[in-house]
Give the backbone structure.
Amino acid sequence: MEITKFERGLVGRVAIVTGAAVGNGRAFCERLAQEGAKVVIADVQNSDELASRLREEGAEVVCVQADLTNPVDVERVAATAIQTFGQIDILVHNVGYYHEEPFELLPFDEWKRTMEITLDSAYHMVRSVLPQMKKQGFGRIITFSSDTVWLGTPYLTAYVTAKMGIIGLTRSLAPEIGRYGVTINTISVGLTATQNANMGQVGVTMLEHIIPAQSVHRADEPEDIANVVAFLALPASGIITGQTINVDGGVARH
Ligand SMILES: NC(=O)c1ccc[n+]([C@@H]2O[C@H](COP(=O)([O-])OP(=O)(O)OC[C@H]3O[C@@H](n4cnc5c(N)ncnc54)[C@H](O)[C@@H]3O)[C@@H](O)[C@H]2O)c1
């Protein structure tokens, strides 16, 4: 989708997007940059290729290679955003991890790893941006859950538990921070065609299986999620907080 310079809603805003080296996060960076935002990409992997492409399109971008389960790395992300761009307006905390296993075979280490990457990283990231957002009197925090929380998808107990935790964090924090002009909302994402090449055959087969169960019979694309991210990030969305918006083509009608 082409956005003209007159329609850009995030000009001058600074957005941190986590987990953007591959998958949905890339589409979020692209969309936020198209809306005029300056982007800080935070990922444990190198994101230079994405950053170069966004810069070629005219965006201001900085990359921070960071493990967001590590509070020291997380602080480095927030500090880089402030040092480079002077503010933090938007946090899109997209990092998540799942491991498929019957519950009785699930090692406790995998349970803890899922919690650490999916839920604990949100604790660290949100805390790292809040002081700056409160100081500014403006902030938009967007977290990610999954439609598996509504569907109760089996063999994903750790992931579904962590993603329910994300909803709890979002709901409980909203009334604590609303008075500072800071909102927090979560998007529960359905199976998304994250660059089909990346998904592998299992992902493609799952998509083929899920599309008939959707209300809208086409694959959920990263750009569909990015559209909701951009909407929630807008200054005009400041009355929406503590909510969970389900984007899955209508598999779960939550
Ligand atoms: N893709 C889907 O079908 C789907 C469905 C439901 C929910 N979700 C959720 O949407 C979000 C994005 O999904 P995706 O499929 O694009 O994910 P992905 O696994 O393709 O990408 C995750 C990104 O996070 C980064 N990352 C992982 N651990 C990290 C860490 N400790 N520190 C920093 N970066 C780290 C990875 O390097 C990667 O770039 C996740 O929260 C996921 O749970 C995705």
In short: The longest strand covers residues 139-146. The mean pLDDT is 94. Helices lie at 24-34, 48-56, 71-85, 108-136, 148-151, 157-177, 196-210, 222-233.
